[in-house]
Amino acid sequence: MGNSKQPSKAAKKGNLAWWQLSLVGVGCTIGTGYFLGSGIGIKTTGPSIVFSFLIAAIGTYIVFHALAKMTADDPREGSFCYYAKKAYGNWAGFSCGWNYWCSNILIMGSQLTALSILTKFWFQNAPLWVMAAVYASLAIIVVLFGTKGFDKVENILAVVKTAAIVMFIVLAFCALSGWINGRHGGGVRLPDTYGEFLPHGLMGFWASLIYAFYAFGGIEVIGLMAMQLKNKDDAPKSGSIMLVLLTIIYVLSLGLTVTMEPYTAFNDKESPFVKAMDDYHLTFFPHVFNGAIIIAGFSTMTASLFGVTNLLVTLSDDGDAPKLFEKKIKKWKNLPLPSLALATAGLVLSIITALLLPGKIYEYITTAAGILLLMNWLFIILSAMRVLKMKGSDKIMGYIGMVVLLLSISGTLAEKEIRPGFYASLIVMIFIIAIAILVNRKKNRRQADSPALE
């Protein structure tokens, strides 16, 4: 806590090689936000979505670079929340922790909705909220009866996700090369005019940035895991390799997608990769791809539920959440039941929202989750500026990162359909900061009164 130099517990148990962390990072980051959310991005800006993802990759690299440098300089279990507290005081650590908790609850809601939408591929008449309730219940059961082998299963399913994209890339190349019959028009659809490349102009491109950044969400988890490296100085290299791999996978798959179908064909009701292969006689592909993404997406959501449950325990340990959430049930695998109950309440809220707003729920939740995530990333850069006393190229990179993040957040105002997500995230942030200031004032009063009592 504070600025005291205590040895980090995590620093003692580093056993990961840099390349292992890179691969884990790729698996953690690829999720339903990419498999479904990228479809909204394409609908919003057309073929220029490829450049949205390149800009997001640059912004993400700047955030990771700042976080990795802070981790190498002073490895801590609290990671970005600890650095925010170190840089700006208790209120910043509190805000950062609760903002991250809220963003993860929304991300789980987004994943839950995405899984329900993808499952409707087979069960078209099933209400969205019913499917969401089924997946939420299964995730809670996994957490309650979690086995020691869960991490190994997570790693296998991370490979499944990556393999699904690689399968699409290979099949798309074969289709465009004429090795698979089925295209009704023939040839590759390359945009050759401004109107084709940016069908909704710069406003559409601006609004699409949030979906590109959302697909890179997860980088801060790698910041937490960087403390498990054998050599903490390898953190920047590990993150760089991970981002290069992710960018190649994302840009290549999206580039192929927008050349196979007109941008108007894509929507938030099905994966753009399944839609892109619609014109080809591959009856197995939609089923195999959809199935792989649902299994992998469910694993990501369950892992998020584990993470959110443990995060609240950490916040409680640090005095940033009620002590109730520290309690663990020893008779039940040492499970922090009160913390899990609050995360479950967040999932239930997502299901109710899906029931009330079935039409646009995925766009709203994804937008709000993306904004809260980017606010945390903004905090990471601001913390690094103060903690590391950045100079020269690092400082310039920090400013560029902040500009790109603010552009992405404000871009949600450019699109009427996703604007409610911006307002929802704004309300959450104002609420968190207001509570943070009140809690901080109480702590300061207590500290001021304690010498007088002695």
From TrEMBL:
Organism: Weizmannia acidilactici
Protein name as catalogued: Transporter YcgH
Membrane topology: Multi-pass membrane protein
Keyword Transport: yes
Lineage, broadest ranks: Bacteria, Bacillati, Bacillota, Bacilli, Bacillales
Positions of the Amino acid permease/ SLC12A domain: 23-390
Gene Ontology annotations for the cellular component aspect, listed alphabetically: plasma membrane
InterPro entries named among the record's database cross-references: AA-permease/SLC12A_dom
A GO biological-process term: amino acid transport
Localisation: Cell membrane
Gene that this sequence comes from: ycgH
